Fold this sequence. Notes:
elongated; 2 strands; two-stranded parallel sheet
Amino acid sequence: MTPGQWHDGRALEVVLADIWVPRLGVGRPRTTPDAVLGDKAYSSRGNRAMLRRRGIRVVIPEPSDQQAN
């Protein structure tokens, strides 16, 4: 996905653009998941805002130093 030293959180939008969520019945796969689960590395304000804009529920814990902000 990305080189080892590059911040993985920057690749989140690229990864989400390539996923397809299969439907239970007939029809094209959806391109937006219901929720995204991630670790604290993906909890940046930019990632959360991008997910909210796309209507995706965020299931990412916030580090204690970010909770106050």
